Amino acid sequence: MFGSTFGNIFKITTWGESHGAGIGVVIDGCPAGLPLCEEDIQAYLDRRKPGQSRYTTQRKESDRVEILSGVFEGKTTGTPISLIVANTDQRSHDYSEIANYYRPGHADRNYDVKYGFRDYRGGGRSSGRETIGRVAAGAVAAKILRELGVEVCAYTLSIGPVSINRDLFDFEEIQNNALFMPDAAAAKEASAYLEKCMSEKNSAGGMIECKITGVPAGIGEPVFEKLNANLGKAILSIGAVKSFEIGDGIRVASSDGLHNNDAYRMDNEGNVWKKTNHSGGITGGLSDGTPIIIRAAFKPTPSIASIQESVTRSGEELDISIKGRHDPIIVPRAVVVVESMAALTILDSMLASMTSRIDRIKTFFEKL
Amino acid sequence: MFGSTFGNIFKITTWGESHGAGIGVVIDGCPAGLPLCEEDIQAYLDRRKPGQSRYTTQRKESDRVEILSGVFEGKTTGTPISLIVANTDQRSHDYSEIANYYRPGHADRNYDVKYGFRDYRGGGRSSGRETIGRVAAGAVAAKILRELGVEVCAYTLSIGPVSINRDLFDFEEIQNNALFMPDAAAAKEASAYLEKCMSEKNSAGGMIECKITGVPAGIGEPVFEKLNANLGKAILSIGAVKSFEIGDGIRVASSDGLHNNDAYRMDNEGNVWKKTNHSGGITGGLSDGTPIIIRAAFKPTPSIASIQESVTRSGEELDISIKGRHDPIIVPRAVVVVESMAALTILDSMLASMTSRIDRIKTFFEKL
Amino acid sequence: MFGSTFGNIFKITTWGESHGAGIGVVIDGCPAGLPLCEEDIQAYLDRRKPGQSRYTTQRKESDRVEILSGVFEGKTTGTPISLIVANTDQRSHDYSEIANYYRPGHADRNYDVKYGFRDYRGGGRSSGRETIGRVAAGAVAAKILRELGVEVCAYTLSIGPVSINRDLFDFEEIQNNALFMPDAAAAKEASAYLEKCMSEKNSAGGMIECKITGVPAGIGEPVFEKLNANLGKAILSIGAVKSFEIGDGIRVASSDGLHNNDAYRMDNEGNVWKKTNHSGGITGGLSDGTPIIIRAAFKPTPSIASIQESVTRSGEELDISIKGRHDPIIVPRAVVVVESMAALTILDSMLASMTSRIDRIKTFFEKL
Amino acid sequence: MFGSTFGNIFKITTWGESHGAGIGVVIDGCPAGLPLCEEDIQAYLDRRKPGQSRYTTQRKESDRVEILSGVFEGKTTGTPISLIVANTDQRSHDYSEIANYYRPGHADRNYDVKYGFRDYRGGGRSSGRETIGRVAAGAVAAKILRELGVEVCAYTLSIGPVSINRDLFDFEEIQNNALFMPDAAAAKEASAYLEKCMSEKNSAGGMIECKITGVPAGIGEPVFEKLNANLGKAILSIGAVKSFEIGDGIRVASSDGLHNNDAYRMDNEGNVWKKTNHSGGITGGLSDGTPIIIRAAFKPTPSIASIQESVTRSGEELDISIKGRHDPIIVPRAVVVVESMAALTILDSMLASMTSRIDRIKTFFEKL
After folding, report:
1. Residue D29 contacts A where some CB pair is shorter than 8 Å
2. ipTM more than 0.85?
3. How far apart are CA D118 and CA D303, in angstroms?
4. What is the pLDDT of residues B304-327, one digit of tens each?
5. Residue numbers of B between 230 and 269 with CB closer than 8 Å to C
6. Chain D neighbors of C319, CB-CB under 8 A
């Protein structure tokens, strides 16, 4: 597999399986001089940690991050930052049973076909624990973005049939409920729905939205490296994502030019502004200075306790029921993963944009 | 801009503006020995050519492709294939007017902010003509894929409010109507809707679906280079795309595990098959051997003759109305662009997958 | 072949064979706002043009460059710059004879083995004409470097047994003689040696040195992207180069620490300087602000009129004698190629270095 | 720094400083199914370990490697292989003194200029310990190459003024002496020379040669990814290397075509062979099936106990004398580093060559 590296300038490489020694990430290209400590990263990891609510697996995963390189006297040195989270709670015996059959909705069979065999313990590399590397690196990217005036905030838009009421959107509320919904009433309703799913040995899907503010206009590269295309790849690379939207997204298909175009006006300070933001902050692949809005649909947790039809490696049909401790929904723990992937993409694109003009390059080197 | 290269092994680099000397693409990494002539490529370009129906601009663009390198005695040599399409019908005066103001829904302002100035003639690099390079390269990728038993087929799913009836889906019909819809009745209805849009100086959006068959299981790389993530980036890099879906896409958010998981069974030949294909042929980022189904939403053509609010480079507000010849809808001409980007992505991923197993690598070199 | 792209930020992709329609290069990542015209590039191409002295082939190659994209109103737009040089003087019949046997010292057989067949006309892609793309792009890189205060100058150090006298080094002289030697006497002596080679149907090798001044300290990236490593790859990628040195180069093997270390002192302006420059301006892979000195050995032209032993594709031994018009030495025409590859490498490394510090990144974005 | 990744398909990313928690490497793209254990890697690390002779520092570095991921049930899984070597013998106080001045011949000052400050403990990232990551990954690459019939062997050619006698070249002898010289007499003489260097508080340079056999013809990519260019970059990226040669290397500059060209003949089995190998196994950037011969010059260890002139960060001149335990020569411990970088480059190029022909690609996928 050579798919474990993401980014061109702020480049990360993740490694690790569900039941190996641990999960890690190497950040190459982090600028020097950034104050960084393990707490900066731990705060993000704690948001994806299981066992925080009854809707996330009760596995005890301490998930403590350790900085192995790249930081000296509290600041990044410009050399690779190696981060590791040891795997502690490993009950391989829980998984021995699935070694021989293919779990529906999982990548088990695809791995066997591609590699000839697989690490069946907890899904190995295809486990959700793989996202630990994304979040650890995303925490560093987000800290740099804050220094540059950019904020990235993701939240739960819907769980199963329960959606938030946009008229009641409350940013403060996001951190108040275990589902990270910006609408207390919807969170309550969604909780009830999840109880029902659990009692029926079933699972639920949901939708996450991410709002990015403070990105200057002109970020992204035309044609193949459009900012929306890279955000799309980043989010679609998260395990359970099946759709990606920007701005009005899928609704533009049934809209018309008069309503979909964002009209330009001047504000009192003499700055250009848009009367609407159907575009979601990006047009022609370049940011326009307005908030960037993206959305992703997450499929229901494939591991369910109900009876399912499957086959074995050797080709026998059988009925299975997944044992073990599994979230009835992926969404709440995925919120910080979406934030992390968005932060990594935006930072990498901003750094890439520094060479777009000869006059700015000249100024940069004259000042050295 | 360093965003004009796509692909890692079958790597393409496009160039050219709407009103420069021409549009071109360099294909680096095309395997040697492939029979290739200009007709192979022209057939694809003709599908995106304007002036084919009254729903596409009446501009006369001959768009003839010329092979400048990489083919000797009718076969690819393994060296870069340089393809060029000369720009013929250039009426710069049509565009001089828009030099000073920013067209709503276009990237005009973002280019000015990013680069300090822009080639305002027909949108320059951000023009839809940029897709000529994608389609020319996509035609070569698609020809290789056919040699490998892979077929890529895109079609129009909806235009404005008019969607096809899946029960009447007819592959033969796709090439029979100017809108490339697999449903004659829907095509007729959509045509009437487009007439209305044009009479109202408005434009329409729509949805394109693409079905890819024959891809072996195990294509794609885990984590960041998932096949669906790369397909997403490829499609989202097409100018007007605002959403990308795979399989059930956005519908998985409101589904549940029991219904969304694809159960495995054995067929009479002793092969594994899936009772359903909610996943759209990819799980865990790897193909599973079933048809790959992707969808994209295209926004309405931003260039409309109706009055719109805009601003000038120097900051004056004004009301504008876009002159010139513009499609009332992007979708029909974008169908072959979607096919091309999908073909480029699938081929590149298949070539990358050749090194996944040591036993296959040994066999390969032993046979040399 | 996917080896036709060079550079990460200022990225070039070359294409074309000796006897195809032409040779070209696409520059992706050129900053916007650079004044650029065809004369800027032609001046460099003219330095590698044949027929300028009796020591270069008398083939008439006009080699006129044409800018096809990326420049608007005399300035680069930030979009890909496509440059083409049409092949004019094509006498394929001159080459038909070599279609069946393998020229010693050439890549003929290696291409046949790798690709299954080859474009035998003038060596196809392995022809020296391939360097036209490097020089055209190098001219643009060099123009940008001059804007940043960086000068790149290459010259001939030796031809066969004739070396320059460093005590008589004269920069002015470089452009005064057809061999680009900074020593008139050595140039005269070398000319006599070349006459002898020609009369004996033989060819000569030689050495080129390149001096790069004005590069700020700290350019290059530690470990694998050391500036000297990238300069080495750039120069070693030129057809006939068999060695690369930096600073004292090969002589350091027999030196000792006391003599090889460059001592630091302070000058009257309070700046650090080095008493010597054995390192050639780079230590630890990073520039130190002193002149960068690199050297390369070029093998003798493999195409000679003398009788040589060879074999045919089908495996018969035969004695051959290369017909046609060939330089008795590669070096003089390669001087500008070395300059171009050095310029491309230095520029790309300087652009990459802009993201090395968080404080500089903050300043950059605050000023937008 | 984003220079810590090497390779395109078999891609490695190294991390770690001299005095951090440890040194590590992540291998992404290792094919699945390769039997791999820590002993395979330890054997290579032991060859670069210090304290093996009196000519290498007496620091006790156990340098035990640990496999953290990517191996399951004794075989590689195709997922990233994370390798770590803990830093044990860390005497930071030894280095505190050099925090304020710049060691001649070291990168201290360049790091300060580039990053604004540096990890001064033992050179931080610029320490020779960085090569642990290269060797650990190189051991894996070499094991794969052996499965493919490729052998990579490096040895010491010269130390200071003492060179081996090629007529007495003895492969068996390489592992018999602490200097890894294939000539016992030369090794004895070189040892005496090193004694002298040490007694004079001085250090020595030297030359390493590497011979690679079993590489099939046609490996490497024309133009910028020539096999010799990538080997050059790989070797020149090793800290103290100041020159790189292939085949006759620097000697070609004074040679002539008649003598430098390698003539082709047929052997009794009807295979093509070359009467000589001046080219060093590569022509036109592609391997020709004969042994690949490369050489590199290593500068003398810059850390010497003699008095040297230097300056402080704040600009005062001072005379220094490097304390601590330092090798009087880098060469012996660098032999395995050269082998490792060569192995990584050859393997990556071989994997890349698998897609050069359409017929081979078709055969590959038909057999799945």
Report:
1. yes
2. yes
3. 18
4. 999 999 999 999 999 999 987 788
5. none
6. none
